[in-house]
Amino acid sequence: MKNELFSIGPFTVYGYGLMIGIGIIAAYLTAESRAKKLKLDPEKIFGLVLWCLIFGYLGSKILYCITVIDEIIADPAFILHSLQNGWVVYGGLIGGILGGYLYCRHKKVNFLSYFDLAVPSVALAQGFGRIGCFLAGCCYGRETESPLGITFTHSDFAPNGVALIPTQEISSLLNFVNFFILINIAKRKKAEGQVGAFYLIFYSIGRFILEFYRGDLGRGSVGSLSTSQFIAIFTLIAGIILVIVSQMLANKGVKAFRVGPGGTAWQAEPESTEAGEAASAAENKTDDEHPESDNTSELEKEDAPEDAAEDSGKE
User: Fold this and answer.
1) pLDDT tens-digit series, residues 182-193
2) Angle formed by the axes of helices 194-210 and 167-188, to 10°?
3) Fewer CB within 10 Å: N-end or C-end of the chain?
4) DSSP label of 218
């Protein structure tokens, strides 16, 4: 596989960057489309994506720096050299969630509703991103004799000329499957936050298992576990807790967790402008058709006392 796809003059298109770009665009369009169906504000999606990208970038880079802290201590300039490469997905995930939370607080909207909206799109973007990893040769697997192994010939990251477990393709497939599963869960969820919770559960399990087959081991470790496996334990627990707690609070009637008209995410359909204008016009028309009857009624009310006085005098 080759990361440099083609060049136009001095401009080179890289497979990794192209797939990341496609993933972000697909995630944005999917979230915007689903927001309209879920009665969320689609105009907030662009800002949400932007905040998540910025905080996700920072989180991914910070966690990467933590995993290579020894190299940074030995050579602080290493940080500058790694600005265009060196990412940790879990750092981006945690940073993105934090960015989304801060954005929702800033816009005064329910974070859990937009969290549920966003995570299927995150899984979709990750699916494309892993294709980019495959093209670049990063995040590669262990050596294998299986006929399903892949061999890189022009990679700057993976060992060339050696059959490796296709961890990038497996991860990409799992993320795409996760996307479709989460879309179906979103249609049946019983509480706000549950879609995001199941994303954490599914991704954590898949990532924990897949880490055993990764060949790029110089990514930091905690005991016998990789950094990602260690974090996966906590994200899995957080997902399970969120599923249970969100359901309990929704059953108790806590508005932030309720789905539908009783929750904070639901936006009632605005009354049609044309219908309102038609109703107003009908009222005006009725008034115009019966002006005399109204006036006659008022005159009768005014004359009634005089007629009563006359009748009283006659008696």
Assistant:
1) 999 999 999 999
2) 160
3) C
4) -
177 contact partners, CB below 8 Å, separation of at least 6: none
Q: What's the confidence (pLDDT) of residue 205? A: 98
Q: DSSP 3-state assignment of 11?
A: strand
Cα 128 from chain centre: 15
- Nearest by Cα to 65 from 54, 78, 56: 78
Cβ-count burial of 39 within 10 angstroms (0-12 exposed, 13-18 middle, 19+ buried)?
middle
Higher pLDDT, 3 or 11: 11
Which residue in 260, 262, 272, 249 sits closest to 40, CA to CA? 260
Query: Which residues neighbour 53 within 8 Å (Cβ) at sequence distance 6 or greater?
Result: 24, 96, 99
Amino acid at 96: G
Query: Which pair of structure tokens corresponds to residue 149?
Result: 């192994």
Which pLDDT belongs to residue 296? 47
pTM of the model: 0.80
pLDDT confidence bin for 309, thresholds 50/70/90: very low
Q: Alpha-carbon Rg of the chain, whole angstroms?
A: 31
